[in-house]
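Ticket reopened. Same input as before:
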Amino acid sequence: MPRVVVDVVLKPEISDPQGQAVLGALGRLGHDSVRGVRQGKHFVLDVEGTPDEAELTQIAETLLANPVIEDVELHLPKG
Amino acid sequence: MRIGVTTFPGSLDDVDAVRAVRLAGGEPVALWHGDHDLEDVDAVVLPGGFSYGDYLRAGAIAARAPLVQDIVTRARQGLPVLGICNGFQVLCEAGLLPGALTRNAHLHFRTRDQALRIERADSAWTRDYEAGQRIVVPVKNGEGRYVAAPADLDRIEAEGRVVVRYVEGNPNGSMRDIAGVTSADGRVVGLMPHPEHAVEELTGPSTDGLGFFTSVLEQVVSA
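Engineering reply: fixed in the latest deploy. New output:
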């Protein structure tokens, strides 16, 4: 069954305290090369039939993400 | 006056909200999330809690419930709606109010008595206050940080949509100390603090919250 992946992250202008907490932990573990962390959500949708890009875009933008504060990326199966 | 109070799986403060409505002199009407029946109520309160376990985003699933879709339709026609805490999150998710509520800046759940300033005393839910009045009601949230893009915040401020603001300390990092906002017509109000927990001397830090519930009664009578 075709698998569609949707990634959701907070917009750059919205501060991400969870990502900052992860960054702080990385610093304490000595991983000084990591200079920024943004935490997001990763959805995996199993879709029956050929995925309808318009429908999936609507799902991503109206339910999976809140467009007021989040950006969304839709990854359709290759081919 | 019949004031509907919604209950979702995970609602916590619906009983307190019903009690606040009754103490204010209104007739509370229980509304179940799966119903499509607003029971001819004159106003609606969406109380706090963790509807649907805060899954996806706080308020996101509840905002798509049949009952809320009906509330959105009626609100756009002028039905007064008050969203408290999780109810505020639902109203933002449903698109009735601008902005969004996200994880507190310090990542802690914060519970305390909170001082607020009433910025707008002409909304359907704040008419019994004076503009600039200081009130104290409980605040209790983990995802109560009010956010929006800077340009949207400028617009919200310019349009006078900020109803209440945190004073004497911001409990969650809300941008511009915003604790509550209103719709353009002033009939839909959402706030993170809990006026329904401050309606009796015995159980609250004050009775300052009662004004939200008495204000709407006058609004309904005059409408």
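The mean pLDDT of chain B is 95. The CA atoms of residues 115 and 136 of chain B lie 4 Å apart. Please confirm and we'll close it.
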